[in-house]
Design brief:
Elements: H1 10-24, E1 30-36, H2 43-53, E2 64-70, E3 75-80, H3 82-85, H4 94-105, H5 109-127, E4 143-144, H6 154-171
Parallel strand pairs: 1-2, 1-4
Antiparallel strand pairs: 2-3
């Protein structure tokens, strides 16, 4: 059984997070990845809930994109915020989902996620180019959450990440 916490190695996570940072240097958009073991509802509904729990709907230009993966139940969703959805045609994310599906079917999880991040960054740059004064509004770290944790495991992970960000801000 694939589990969210062990779906990627530490090195793979770091490599994907670096890919997110690189992609965001081509766009003012924000990219996040969230991984769970199983999807407890319809994938797009779960992705939308996760999008809001991660605060992705609070970016200045409403141009965040979430790549949602439930690794064991093999569910994938890619959703963009209002600013993106108002600017792009229907089906804009289908090729990203196709890339993920193809890579995952070959067991190339990290490669699929890095490719998806690169493609999302490329697509976002067309509508939301990088601005000189751009600020990274959302963490580049992959978030992990599991219903198996006895509730919504995202809460613990998000609190941990928020504490790390707060500590980093205090150190600056």
């Amino acid at each position: 059984m694939l589990r969210a916490r062990t779906f990627l190695t530490k090195e793979e996570r770091h490599s994907i997070e670096s890919a997110i940072a690189q992609a965001e240097h081509r766009t003012s958009g924000e990219i996040r990845i969230h991984i769970e073991t199983n999807c407890p509802s319809e994938p797009k509904e779960r992705a939308l809930r996760t999008f809001h729990l991660l605060g992705m709907n609070k970016t200045a230009n409403r141009n965040g994109v979430l790549i949602y993966v439930a690794c064991n139940s093999r569910d994938i969703a890619v959703i963009g915020d209002k600013g993106i959805n108002n600017a792009v045609p229907d089906g804009f994310w289908k090729d990203v989902v196709a890339l993920l599906t193809s890579s995952f079917s070959e067991g190339k999880y990290a490669d699929g996620l890095k490719g998806a991040v690169s493609l999302v960054g490329e697509k976002l740059s067309e509508y939301f180019p990088y601005m000189r004064d751009d600020v990274n509004e959302l963490a580049d770290e992959i978030s992990i959450g599991d219903e198996e944790d006895g509730g919504d495991g995202m809460r613990e992970e998000m609190i941990s990440q928020a504490e790390m960000l707060a500590n980093d801000s205090e150190d600056a």
